[in-house]
Amino acid sequence: MDYDVAIIGAGAAGLTAAIYAVRAGKKTAVFEKLVAGGQIVNTPKISNYPGTPGISGAAWSQALEKQASDLGAEMIYDEVLQLEQVDNGFKLSTEDESYTARTVIVATGLNERKMEVPGEAKFIGRGVSFCATCDGSFYKDKTVAVVGGGNTALSDALYLSDLAKKVYLVHRRAEFRGEFALQEKIKTRKNVELVLGYMPIEVVGDKRVTGLKIREREGTLEKTLGVDGIFVAVGKIPSNQLIADLVELDEAGYAITDDKCGTKTPGLFVAGDGRVKELRQLVTATADGAVAASSAIDFLA
Amino acid sequence: MSVTEITSAEEFRKVVLESQTPVVVDFNADWCGPCQMLRPKIEKLAEGGAKIASVNIDELDDLAEEYEVASIPCLVKFAGGKEIDRKVGLLPEKKVAKFVEDTMVGSDEAEVEEA
Ligand SMILES: Cc1cc2nc3c(=O)[nH]c(=O)nc-3n(C[C@H](O)[C@H](O)[C@H](O)COP(=O)(O)OP(=O)(O)OC[C@H]3O[C@@H](n4cnc5c(N)ncnc54)[C@H](O)[C@@H]3O)c2cc1C
Question: Residue A132 — φ and ψ, nearest 5°?
Answer without folding.
Answer: -65, -40
